[in-house]
Amino acid sequence: MLYRQSVNKLRKFLPNLRSLRRFGISILLFLGIVLFSWFVMAQQPVTLNLLLPAPDAPPLQRMIKDFEAENPGIRINIVEGPNATNLVEDLYTSAFILGESPYDLVVMDIIWTPKFAAAGWLLDLSNRISQDELAAFSPNDVEGGRYEGKLYRLPIRSDAGMLYYRKDLLAEAGLQPPETFQDLMAASKTLQKTGKVTWGYLWQGRQYEGAVAMFMEVLEGAGGFWVNPDTLEVGLDRPEALRAIEFLRGTVQEGVAPPGVTTYHEEDTRRFFQNGQAAFLRSWPYVWPLANEETSPIKGKIGIKPMVHAAGQSGAACLGGWGFGISKSSRHPEEAWKAIQYFTSEETQRQFILKEGYLPSRRALFTDPQIVAKYPHYPQILEVVQKAVLRPPIAQYAQASDILQRYLSAALTNRTSPEKAMQSAANETRRLLNAGQAKPSA
Predict the structure, then answer these.
(1) How far is 306 from 163, CA to CA, in rounded Å?
(2) Measured between alpha carbons, how far is 358 from 159 in angstroms, rounded to an integer?
(3) How far from chain centre, in Å, is Cα 346?
(4) Could you report the per-residue pLDDT of 27-41, keeping only the tens digit for each?
(5) Could you confirm whether domain 46-159+320-389 is CATH 3.40.190.10?
């Protein structure tokens, strides 16, 4: 009887056991699929997206190819933007405002950093790099990546305004390269009288950011300032600013600069200078290799130096350049940082400079024997970069620049007196900065 009861219980339990076994197999199969999917996904490379001006894409693409070869788990996808940098800035801004930006790496012009950082769009990089590592970079370039004491951008290449001059013509006339505004005017007139150049001095006067960069150098050289970022004091209506404008206006009034200079941008002035029509040019380092091409009329005939200044003051160069930041919304910040470390490393920069001719952001590379062998003028450029000044690192920089562009153009083209133009520019800038400081009521 007991045996029969045991058999019956076993018969009832066996179907349940078989069900449990089938259930267990199903669970194992499910877990296996999940683990396999996870494994497959883990083997897929991480893709980092970045946006940059179209002309900068080919040089960076070559760096990316080398990076991906060393880091097979990371891919970098370039989104080519417009040629104009301000339009690229607008695209970044739109992407951030609309929500989570699709870009992991943020390639930034130096003047974008305060705006992007103040808006909370960038990761703070301060704890990712030591002070010793930062010391290898040009201090001004590093400072251009800070906002309110935190680091948001690491520089990959530098840029600085400088004075080009015809060293052959100066030597023939027994003149030294000018140091002051007065020296420049006098040398220009002397060389124009020889008939070997039509114009003395060329600068960028069109109403755009390039004119702001140019004016920054003259303003600093006159002992003035635009906006003090620490106190937000505005100096556009001070006597020094008026002296800076008078110098620029004087170059046109006295025939040293052409009447159309107030409509020129970089390439306009570069072509005049490279064709041998002018003795002096304020521009950026990119002019040097073009002016020294085999077909250039002035090949081997030019020198460079820091910008001229008022007597008793010192010359200044407006700092430009580009760097990398990381989007705060990036899902791959560690991979993004790994890419930044690679792109800004000494060896990568060395190869980048040798192939593309850009300025390094690392100080040692300006005097690196391999680089100097190809670009013997780089030690001179280092002297310029070390005197570089930042445009005001304020969150409202774009608006402040627009204000200065409008009134500066009005003063340079005689549509408004310098006094009235700079007073209006200063007042509008103060209202802008005060509005940014105002706190909304509770």
Answers:
(1) 6
(2) 8
(3) 19
(4) 554 444 444 444 434
(5) yes
Q: Do domains 46-159+320-389 and 160-318+392-437 have the same CATH topology?
A: yes
Q: How far is CA 147 from the centre of its chain?
A: 15
Helices (H), 357-396: 369-374, 378-385
Q: What tokens appear for 137 in the block?
A: 């970079």
**Nearest to 182, CA basis, from 237, 235, 242, 246:** 246
> Looking at the domain covering 160-318+392-437, what would its CATH class be?
alpha beta
Which 3 state secondary structure label does DSSP give 359?
strand
Task: Report the DSSP pairing between strands 317-326 and 388-389.
Answer: parallel
DSSP 133-198: HHTTB-HHHHHTTEETTEE--EEEEEEE-EEEEEHHHHHHHT-PPP-BHHHHHHHHHHHHHTTS-S
366, 360 in Cβ contact below 8 A?
Answer: yes
Q: pTM of this prediction?
A: 0.86
Q: Where are the domains of the chain?
A: 46-159+320-389, 160-318+392-437
CA dist 75 and 46 (Å) reads: 6
Alpha-carbon span 207 to 138, nearest angstrom: 30
Q: Cα separation of 353 and 227, whole Å?
A: 33
Cβ contact 299:292 at 8 Å: yes
CB hemisphere CA count around 181 (13 angstroms):
23
199-215 confidence digits (pLDDT tens): 999 999 999 999 999 99
Q: Are 422 and 242 in contact (CB under 8 A)?
A: yes
The confidence band for 198, taking pLDDT boundaries of 50, 70 and 90, is very high
**3-state secondary structure at position 298:** coil
3-state DSSP helix/strand/coil percent for the chain, to nearest 5? 55, 15, 30
Q: Is the dihedral of CA 139, 143, 149, 154 positive or negative?
A: negative
239-253 vs 397-412: helix crossing angle, rounded to 10: 50
Nearest by Cα to 186 from 254, 281, 243, 252: 254
Amino acid making up residue 309: H
How far is the C-alpha of 202 from the C-alpha of 247, rounded, in Å?
A: 13
Three-state DSSP class for residue 132: helix
